[in-house]
TrEMBL record:
Keyword annotations from UniProtKB, A to Z: Membrane, Transmembrane, Transmembrane helix
InterPro entries: DUF6220
Species of origin: Paenibacillus nasutitermitis
Pfam families assigned: DUF6220
Annotated TM spans: 12-40, 46-68, 75-94, 100-119
Protein's UniProt name: Uncharacterized protein
Highest taxon of source: Bacteria
Keyword Transmembrane helix assigned: yes
Amino acid sequence: MSFMKQSTVNRGAGFCFLGVAGLFVICIMTQIFIAGMAIFTDSSYWHSHIVFVRIFELFPIVMLLLSFIGKISTFLRWMSVLLLVFVFAQYFTANFDGAGAVHPLIAAVMLWVSIVVTVHAKRSMFPKKEHVQPEGVEIQ
């Protein structure tokens, strides 16, 4: 594969990573909202809460694969692994007596980590260009 094609593949994988990370944030927020609906409105929403996770539970694996294809930072790779561990922890705490109280805490931390991942991915895809002051121009 030529250098140009390889860098295009890397950049494309980076954009896909950013997209999946952003979708993951939206899905976690939606999942938390559905849980709130089940607690405060109608318990029939628990079924939606259980089913909805099936849509996005594998996003961290996709993100991990894309991080290798796109040669994305080691930090984002490890954060993808951490998000996957959180997904498994959610299943564990939802189905293990006595650990259920940790379930919403993990959800909150997972939301925070996923936002950090998305912001970091965006910054790596679109780095800030340093503003170069034209010579002889003073701004006061």
